[in-house]
Amino acid sequence: MSKKDLIFKSALMLFTTRGFHDTPTSEIAKQAGVATGTLFHYFSTKEELINELYLECKSTLVDKVMEGVDPQWDLPTRMHKMYFNSVLWGVEYHDKFNFLQQFDNSPNISDLTREEGYNRIKSINWVFDEAREAGLIRKDHRDMLMELVYAFIISVVTQLIQTKPEPKERDELIDLSYSILMKAFS
After folding, report:
1. What is the pLDDT of residues 39-53, one digit of tens each?
2. Count of alpha carbons within 13 Å of 28, Cβ hemisphere only?
3. Could you give the domains of the chain?
């Protein structure tokens, strides 16, 4: 693992457990096993570090959601796979999941970074818009519906993290939750 990745890993853990203001850069460096000067070689400020970490988390989310999704599949199949992948990402990368939950609307994330993060997830949102146009989900207030889907995913991920079902049962629960979501939004 590179020094930058070690710093990201340490910052991720400390920011989510202690918060931004209660996490000194010296502690991030210590937990990462690098000198404080090394941290500042990669990130000029703690603010730069948290903003880059935010973008890295958004990128891994998009990569996981799109993993194995064939653009040639019909829309319902693509939607199901993307939903399934997004829940799995939250379960498998719950540290990044928790970080995004905690810092998505934080003043510690700059407007420019938040906009870049939004641009990174646009590749996911187009399927939502396509489903609305195809009549698979409601055409009501788009942003409100997207927030409700996000809240639904958070609830499912949280439940799976707490209960720790075996993979087969986990997958069945994800499929069931998708079915419930689609019924609620159609």
Report:
1. 999 999 999 999 999
2. 34
3. 1-44 (1.10.10.60), 46-185 (1.10.357.10)
